[in-house]
Write a structure and sequence with these properties.
It contains seven helices and 39 strands. It has a single domain, classed as TonB-dependent receptor, beta-barrel domain (Maltoporin, Chain A), CATH 2.40.170. The protein is globular, with a radius of gyration of 24 Å. It is mainly beta.
């Protein structure tokens, strides 16, 4: 089994690409690893903000209470095409529209050990929904957090963040309890005040020298403002409350010097309460509760086998059950559900010392999407010990969500048999597919302390799931005649071609510089989509980060980001090119026996800028905050 030291060696060992532990230069895909020190020094308050350090990721969110980061192109507002894992557990929510961004908020940043990001498709390892990138958030082992820690941040825009952690244990068992809360007032000119509270427990047990058991429990609850205006007929100001909870057990056993077994079981529940009053016509007021309740159960078994010094495999089987209910979203259906049985495997063959072949295959049998396969073939050429070239192709899919298969949204007008029916899914929609071809390069110059990771890609997506704008609507008795029910259909294809790279330079023992850039061109097959500039990503994006240690335990970080013009929805919401600079100045010291750090962070030093929805004058404002952290 790899140790923690392996993950932070000069060539880090990563797990996310193929589920096998591999040195970064042997992984079958481009990867970015961000450790906990970098997360802290970045001044980020959310995981979405941390992902600005990954080339190709674009920060978004329809309001400040719903931060979202998408790889290459944001084809939805919920992150359903970007797989997010926390300690290997998917945070994909079943109840609404295949959401991951609520789950991505369900982790406390000080608890994170590192974030591994595979830049590209990876259904071959993880199945449906690992289409545009895999974000694997790995929390700290509880043995590394014995003792206590507390932090407080206060600042502009209502920022008030609190965090506390207590860890106890010994050589055989360790437990950590972490609690935290975040508050802020979101975007300027938006109704999106946020209060996010969390409680998490992680236990790590070692019942024998061959066994390791990890147990994780947690709950996060978000209370946030929603809505466009006090008088908007479809989305007036209202309060939304969501709660995400999980339980996870993972058991790892080293069977012998060649075989390792892993069994994981997890359960996730996501609930939303969203009562509001809409006015479809000025004379009618309608109370609607868009709340949902989702559950997902998952079990997985995998075995890693080292057959020889040149050949090793990983095979696994699993099953998941997803279900949801909502009186409004799934009218009259009670619980709706789908299950999936899966078989997956990876084979790594070292043809000779310079050539490495990695093949992966995922086979899923989904009760609604049917049977699908997702293969990958990648060849790594280790031209020298420090220069690696990578060439490969991957096919990925996204299975439609429960709402895209079974959604039937109804709201009855008071005192009448008439009802509004904005969506009525026929269940005929098919999975989306993505073919990703890439050429990669990873170069290291140890003497100069420079690393360059580049990826040239062509991504071809077909069968995009969209709504049909009511074209196939069949009116039911009592259905409001002025509103067509929309179905979900496959109607869209696009091609994305680009180059991205990340350059890291450890100029001195005290100075580190990062440079990330992404250049891309996207073209819709349908000229109408092209004309409307539907979901258009930026053609270029650059992030520069400087981490500088100063004398007397001072440290300064500067992150500058420039993003080209784009739209996260339609042409009417086109955003001009934006730039953002964050500066963090910190000092570590001892205070009454505690290890302490005081930091002052300013985000968006340039000032207010239009963001996400220029039509409504949403702005990302400049904000500063002070942070004090104490640790035993």
């Amino acid at each position: 089994m790899p140790t923690e030291a392996d993950y932070f060696a000069q060539v880090p060992v990563v797990l996310t690409a193929s589920r096998l532990d591999q040195p970064l230069n042997e992984a079958p895909g481009a990867m970015t690893v961000i450790d906990r020190d970098t997360i802290r020094q970045s001044g980020a308050r959310t995981v979405a903000e941390v992902l600005r350090l990954v080339p190709g990721y674009v920060l978004g969110g329809w309001n400040g209470a719903n931060p979202l980061a998408s790889y290459h192109v944001a084809l939805d507002d919920f992150g359903g095409r970007n797989l997010v894992l926390i300690d290997g557990r998917s945070v994909y929510a079943s109840s609404y529209l295949g959401d991951t961004h609520y789950g991505m908020m369900g982790v406390l940043l000080p608890d994170i050990e590192r974030i591994e990001v595979l830049r590209g498709a990876n259904s071959a390892a993880y199945g449906a929904n690992a289409m545009f990138g895999v974000v694997n958030i790995i929390t700290r082992h509880s043995a590394d957090t014995v003792g206590g820690s507390a932090a407080l941040s206060v600042g502009d825009n209502g920022i008030r963040d609190t965090y506390a952690r207590l860890g106890v244990g010994n050589e055989a068992r360790n437990v950590r309890v972490s609690v935290g809360e975040q508050r802020d007032r979101g975007y300027l000119n938006a109704f999106d005040d946020k209060r996010l509270g969390q409680v998490h427990v992680r236990a790590d047990l070692q019942p024998s020298l061959a066994d390791d058991v990890m147990v994780s429990l947690g709950v996060s609850e978000l209370l946030a403002g929603e809505g466009y205006s006090a008088t908007d007929k479809d989305n007036p100001f209202h309060q939304l409350r969501s709660r995400t909870s999980h339980a996870q057990v993972e058991w790892r056993r080293q069977l012998d010097d060649r075989n390792a077994l892993q069994v994981s079981v997890d359960y996730m529940e996501d609930r939303r309460w969203e009562p509001l009053t809409i006015r479809p016509i000025p004379s009618v007021s309608l109370d609607v509760d868009s709340g949902t309740w989702g559950q997902r159960q998952n079990v997985e078994v995998q075995q890693r086998t080292v057959w020889s010094p040149t050949w090793r495999t990983l095979v696994g089987v699993g099953y998941k059950d997803e279900r949801a209910r909502s009186d409004t979203m799934y009218y009259g259906q009670g619980w709706v559900s789908m299950g999936e049985t899966r078989l997956f495997g990876t084979a790594e063959w070292r043809v000779d010392p310079a050539w490495l072949l990695n093949a992966g295959l995922f086979v899923g049998d989904n009760t609604l999407a049917g049977t699908y396969t997702a293969p990958r073939l990648m060849v790594n050429w280790l031209a020298t010990p420090h220069q690696t070239w990578r060439l490969g192709v991957t096919e990925s899919i996204r299975a439609p969500s429960l709402s895209e298969y079974k959604g039937d949204v109804r709201a009855y007008l008071p005192g009448t048999p008439s009802f509004l029916r904005p969506f009525a899914a026929s269940g005929s929609v098919q999975p989306e597919t993505l073919i990703s071809q890439e050429i990669g390069y990873l170069g290291r110059w140890p003497g100069a302390q420079v690393t360059l990771d580049a990826r040239l890609y062509r991504e071809r997506m077909r069968d995009l799931v969209v709504d049909d704008n009511g074209k196939g609507n069949v009116f039911l008795p009592g259905q409001w005649p002025g509103m067509k029910a929309k179905d979900f259909v496959n109607d869209g294809a696009l091609t994305l071609v680009g180059l991205e790279y990340q350059l890291r330079w450890k100029a001195t023992a005290r100075t580190e510089l990062w440079l990330n850039q992404n250049f891309s061109r996207m073209k819709w097959d349908d000229p109408d989509y092209e004309r409307k500039k539907e979901r258009r990503p930026p053609r270029h994006a650059t992030t520069i980060a400087l981490f500088q240690q100063l004398p007397d335990n001072w440290q300064i970080s500067v992150l500058h980001e420039r993003v080209g013009s784009m739209t996260l929805r339609t042409k009417s919401e086109w955003m001009k090119a934006t730039h953002r600079t964050d500066i963090r100045l910190a000092r570590t010291f001892r205070w009454d026996g505690y290890k302490a750090e005081a930091a002052f962070t300013v985000q968006s030093v340039e000032g207010d800028q239009l963001f996400f929805d220029p039509q409504r004058n949403y702005r990302r404002g400049r904000q500063g905050f002070l942070t004090l952290q104490l640790e035993m």
